[in-house]
Write a structure and sequence with these properties.
- With 512 residues, the protein is mainly β.
Length: 512
């Protein structure tokens, strides 16, 4: 056996007297290891559950119904009984189960409460922690203040006894939801949207705990004071084309009945358009009126009626047509002469029909007609154009018809008495050629006119002819000294008489 020889102790100034250096080293190492040893010791200690733990209701719970069930967990061997303490109200249970247990409290006043559980076992007592909860099992009080009976101001007023939210109900249907509510602070909401008539209303309010109260509905009759309610009509234009639909903006009291008539703006009996009716809403409405089918001025009459209130509003407008009519005539304005009347139509809707009304009362239809007059004087002719849209326009034509007589001129050779064909008979701007019978017939108005007769190979004849009735004349022409150089010399001449011939000696034949 080997004997260890101890080293003598040495004195170190930083080491206590009587300590060795090795001892000091071991002590320092142990000092540094203490935290780690403490942690290891902590991990080695088993975790144990409290003997009594609380379940429901949890801390801060809000309850609204009774009875209330309280649950708790017991981990206490040989537990003999447990006592529930709810704000001083005690309830004891002797049948204790290790684990979940339940105690039920049937009666408890509303308000803030605290609760805990104490369990007893031989030689020991265990008590749980304490939790807080609030019980509110009472619905709020909702008071309906107004309206009732017959009202002119449709304002609902009510209160609720607790903080929460409310729903305004009218005629068994929600009118407005999620209305914030404070205790006993009046809430006001308009009922004007319900309109005139009988209605019911109530309010349903829910507090923060979910308790809801809804009083029985109240009845009321809304009869607005319409004497000051706006009633207006306004047209979108002042002038419309025929066939164009006027647009009328109507503002009338809600629930009112409005009768709308459109009539020609004329004196006496007039034919109005079919009546239109509308129900007022209180907001602007657009009404399409019947289009005008005749040009002229029209008035719109709107009669509003509700309960005992009646109001009248009027507007006026004019209607015009794009239909344009032009007429002209062709022919001499003389008795017995044929005159052609023609019409030109522009801007017609579809096709247009032209009707001519003549001075004798007869009518003719067509864009062009012929007529004549047997007597002189001023003659008024009226043309009316009607298109497919029933738009019409008229125009008058005045003719100044002069009296005319028939002048029959017979032309003969002075020497032989032979009838001369193709002689040119000119009078009052008219020119006619004689036929094989040597005659030309003209219609000349009353008065004295200059008659000129020309024929190739003959000296011309000129004569003033007074006409007051039908007349027949015979004109004789003298053959010129020089025969014509070619057959063309026998052709008639319609050219005006040359000036040098007018200045030479003229032959005037007597009138027979």
């Amino acid at each position: 056996e080997t004997l260890r020889k101890e080293r003598p102790a040495t004195i170190n100034p930083r080491i206590g007297h009587g300590q060795t250096a090795e001892g000091t080293h071991y002590a320092g190492t142990l000092l540094h290891a203490l935290p780690l040893l403490a942690f290891i010791l902590l991990l080695s200690i088993p975790v144990t559950q409290a003997a009594v733990d609380l379940g429901l209701p949890q801390e801060g719970a809000r309850l609204q119904e009774k009875p209330i069930s309280f649950t708790y967990y017991v981990s206490l061997p040989n537990a003999e009984h447990c006592t529930l303490d709810v704000s001083g109200t005690l309830l004891t249970e002797t049948a204790i189960t290790q684990g979940l247990n339940t105690l039920t409290l049937t009666e408890l006043a509303d308000g803030n409460h605290s609760w805990n559980v104490t369990c007893m076992a031989p030689n020991q007592t265990q008590q749980s922690s304490t939790q807080q909860f609030t019980l509110d099992s009472t619905a709020p009080t909702v008071t309906l203040l107004a309206p009732t009976g017959t009202i002119t101001n449709p304002l609902a007023r009510f209160t609720t006894s607790e903080t929460g939210s409310c729903t305004l109900i009218a005629n068994n249907a929600p009118l407005e939801e999620n209305i914030p509510a404070s205790p006993n602070v009046p809430i006001e909401r308009s009922l004007a949207s319900l309109g005139y008539g009988a209605h019911t209303w109530t309010a349903s309010c829910t507090d923060l705990h979910g308790n809801t109260a809804e009083p029985s509905p109240r009845s009321f009759t809304y009869q607005p004071d319409y004497s000051s309610h706006p009633f207006t009509i306004e047209l979108n234009k002042e002038t419309y084309q025929l066939g164009e639909t006027p647009q009328l903006t109507l503002v009338a009291p809600p629930g009112s009945t409005v009768r709308i008539d459109v009539c020609p703006d004329q004196n006496g009996f007039v034919q109005c358009k079919p009546t239109k009716t509308s129900t007022g809403t209180g907001s602007p409405q657009t009404i399409a009126l019947h289009p005008a089918d005749q040009p002229g001025s029209y008035f719109v009459e709107a009669l509003m009626n509700i309960t005992n209130t009646t109001k009248l509003a009027t507007e006026t407008y004019s209607a015009q047509s794009n239909l344009a009519l032009g007429i002209e005539h062709d022919g001499e304005e003389l008795t017995g002469e044929s005159i052609t009347l023609s019409a030109d139509v522009q801007g017609a809707s579809g096709t247009a029909t032209i009707t001519w009304k003549l001075p004798d009362g007869t009518t003719k239809i067509g864009t062009s007609i012929e007529t004549s007059f047997s007597s002189p004087g001023e003659k008024k002719i009226t043309a009316t154009a009607t298109d497919s849209a029933a738009a019409t326009t008229t125009k008058d034509l005045i003719l100044n018809i002069k009296q005319a007589y028939v002048l029959t001129v017979t032309v003969k050779d002075k020497d032989t008495g032979a009838l001369l064909q193709d002689a040119s008979v000119q009078i009052d701007g008219q020119t006619k050629d004689t036929g094989t019978n040597g005659q030309a017939t003209l219609r000349i108005q009353t008065g004295t006119h200059t008659l000129t007769v020309l024929r190739g190979g003959y000296a011309y004849a000129r004569q003033d002819v007074p006409l007051t009735q039908d007349k027949a004349l015979t004109i004789t022409l003298t053959r010129t000294a020089s025969p014509p150089r070619s057959p063309s010399a026998h052709l008639r001449s319609k050219a005006p008489i040359p000036r040098h011939l007018q200045q030479s000696s003229q032959q005037k034949e007597p009138i027979h």
